């Protein structure tokens, strides 16, 4: 219930105005969103962590705004060290205007990234964008075979998706939105996650295990070992500000760990999704507001 309410608030313009104009939210935003992306990336990579950087923004409604999002990404690529990844939301590149436009824009980012030894991963968003996401991903892969894509295990067809994505870089996550017909019980989402993990680990692609869930992290490690993958054969991914000690612990054991680093002024929907994920996050948010 609380999660649904928070996700509904993430789309409310009124709530957005209220939250974003309050000086009291700064501490919470700083916890999840990089204030200075170059500094944060430098600090994380200096500690042996990998990064995937997201220029926050989604749902553009005109071509000019989509063009601006591309320009932001092209400028961002110049700041990143080799081996970094950028996470891209196709709705920010114009997917809701036209699939062709999103493909063109994502292709420009992939081409610029390849020149700098960087990779691109396409985030998964609302359920009505998933068909377009996979169509654009399939088209991009012809020229950019290392472009990654996200699969959300709360979608019942996620296993089928994973089976069709042979050879690809695939980030597996639980899913941060809502979708008709999606699994809602945590046990069902986790079971689906494990089924997908089995397919990805035993396949020919590169699995990216995006979760903070200790049980799923342990299962991923076991499945990787059973599939004969060494530490370079897959990676863990976690969000900036979430379980930083675990990120460092896994990296200290020799695992590849990539931190998803969001930055930019359009942080409101991202922050609300993070608060929706954990009631404790919400308590932290409210406490930091009340303690002022
Ligand atoms: P949860 O069910 O949220 O948590 C499971 C357990 O993990 C908890 O019980 C707790 O033990 C532990 N845990 C979680 N958070 C904390 C915390 N703050 N402190 C301590 N322990 C904690 N979603 C999309 O829909 N599309 C995307 O493209 C996408 N990209 C993502 C990229 C990355 C790198 C990551 C990590 C997530 C991404 N997500 C994306 C979000 C994802 O779908 C989930 O909403 C989010 O990761 C929360 O799920 P979880 O797997 O961490 O497990």
From TrEMBL:
Cofactors, names only: FAD
Pfam family, one: Pro_dh
The entry's keywords: FAD, Flavoprotein, Nucleotide-binding, Oxidoreductase, Proline metabolism
InterPro entries for the chain: FAD-linked_oxidoreductase-like, PRODH_bac_arc, Proline_DH_dom, Proline_oxidase
Matches recorded under Gene3D superfamilies: 3.20.20.220
Domain Proline dehydrogenase: 42-282
The name this protein goes by in its record: proline dehydrogenase
Organism of origin: Nonomuraea salmonea
């Amino acid at each position: 219930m609380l999660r649904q309410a928070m996700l509904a608030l993430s789309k409310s313009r009124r709530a957005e105005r209220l939250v974003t104009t309050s000086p009291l939210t700064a501490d919470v935003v700083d916890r999840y969103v990089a204030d200075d992306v170059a500094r944060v990336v430098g600090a994380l990579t200096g500690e042996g962590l990998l990064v995937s950087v997201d220029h926050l923004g989604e749902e553009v409604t005109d071509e000019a705004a989509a063009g601006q999002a591309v320009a932001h990404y092209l400028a961002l690529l110049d700041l990143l060290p080799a081996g970094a990844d950028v996470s891209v939301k196709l709705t920010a590149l114009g997917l809701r205007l036209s699939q062709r436009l999103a493909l063109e824009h994502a292709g420009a980012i992939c081409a610029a990234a390849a020149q700098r030894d960087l990779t691109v991963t396409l985030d998964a968003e609302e359920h009505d964008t998933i068909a377009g996401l996979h169509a654009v991903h399939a088209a991009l892969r012809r020229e950019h075979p290392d472009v990654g894509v996200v699969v959300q295990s709360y979608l019942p067809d996620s296993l089928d998706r994973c089976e069709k994505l042979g050879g690809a870089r695939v980030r597996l996550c639980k899913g941060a939105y809502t979708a008709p017909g999606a699994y809602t019980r945590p046990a069902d989402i986790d079971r689906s996650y494990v089924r997908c993990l089995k397919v990805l680990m035993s396949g020919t692609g590169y699995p990216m295990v995006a979760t903070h869930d200790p049980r799923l992290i342990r299962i991923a490690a076991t499945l990787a070992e059973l599939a004969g993958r060494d530490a370079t054969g897959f990676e863990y991914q976690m969000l900036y500000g979430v379980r930083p000690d675990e990120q460092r612990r896994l990296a200290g054991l020799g695992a590849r760990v990539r931190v998803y680093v969001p930055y930019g002024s359009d942080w409101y929907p991202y922050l609300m999704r993070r608060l929706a994920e954990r009631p404790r996050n919400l308590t932290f948010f409210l406490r930091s507001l009340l303690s002022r």
